Amino acid sequence: MQLKLTHKLLILVILPLSFELCFVFVLSELLKKAEIELHRETHSKAVIAESNELVKNFYDTSSALIAYAVSPSQQVTAEYLKRVELIPSRLRSLELLVSGSERQKAAFAEVYASTNKALTLLKKIKEDLDSGESARNLASAGLLRKRVTTAVGALITHIHELVADERQIEEVAPQAQARFRDLIVACLAGGIVLNILLAVALALFVSQSTVNRLRVLMDNTRRIVGRQQLNPAVGGNDEIAHLDATFHDMARELALAEKQKQEVISMVSHDLRSPLMSLDFSLTLIGSGKYGELNERGHKELTSAESSTKRLIRLINDLLDIEKIESGKLTVLKMPLSFTALAEHSIDSVQALAAAKEITVKVESAGDIEFPGDADRLEQVIINLLGNAIKFSPNQSDVTIKCEEKDKFVEIRVIDSGPGIPADYRKKVFDRFQQVSRGDGKEKEGTGLGLAISRAIVEAHGGTIGVDSEGGQGSSFWIRLPDA
Ligand code: ADP
Prior knowledge:
It is built from ten helices and seven strands. It is of the alpha+beta class.
């Protein structure tokens, strides 16, 4: 699917949200219907109760009237009047309750009429009783009862018609409510199951279309750093696919840059280093007088040319070494080494430099110490340390190289009485192109690469390198190499 990442995220949000909204809507509809059923039931109960009350009221009033006929005491009269007054208010309550349904309103009209008729009858009987005609017209309380019962009977018949529907509602409403309850429970259970299925489906969708491809991307970043071949393109048209395409472009550019760098390096080592080496050799021959003696001016120019050539060769060698270190091609071949031999060879290489400043290079060690190492590479390290020590020491001072056997490692120190290394530079000087700026111009004589190369060589031996120095008290550069 050609979806953008933002679209996928929108799907992740919108899909569950729409589902939840539908779910809530269905649930609320069901609840509404259940509530309507409950309301219908309550309403029916109220209509039935109110109707029953009306009938009971009539019976009570009739009974009070019969009691009045038998013994018209003050108390019985009050009782009758109280009952009679209640009937219109009951009628009003019932009217209000049925006002919502046209059919019930029609039935209520009948009830209303028969109630009024019965009331008029009751009032007429009462008037008859009061006018003393009772003895003549109403032969007995039995006759009275008969007339009242006929009137109330008509009312009851109409009341029955009024509440017939309500009784049916009262009967079926609980069943309908139970059905809605079951539906709500089923809807809830179904909703939960669907929700879980939707969550799993979305998680799979995200994992397939995003997380797995992001993982490939992360692996590609690691591969770029490690200069390895990248994974095949992740495919698609989203931001991840674009990023992956950029990674592939970047890897191609890097490979191209790497190829060009290799070409420059081989050009530097063959087309620059080799002619410089032969130039250096020729200058040495000229200096030896093989092609005739030079005058004093000639010697001076030759010495300057020789030192420039040597500096250039050193710079090229350093650059080639740094490249080797960066491309992981720096290898060391460990052989048994003797410290004495290593120190002597290294001192030979810096002797001219030391002599020029009348500096004495002293060797200190308790006997000849042996350890495994790459002779050429370690000599390069010691020469660099001795060269720096001589460069930075005052004239006619001493530079000491000493070796000690410690627990599980051998420590070689090159100690001088130069300006020392300021505290904030003691780690930095081992990084590439880092030189302590003192304003004496000596840093210009170097490349700032020697100690970085030394550190790489020592670490390739499994050792460590560092410097102890108190400002103005000289420097003590040390290397610690495993003794086995
Ligand atoms: P380079 O000597 O070619 O500049 P290095 O990496 O060998 O490069 O040394 C880096 C810097 O460390 C030097 O420029 C100098 O500032 C400082 N340094 C190294 N050795 C000494 C020393 N023995 N005394 C004082 N400073 C030193």
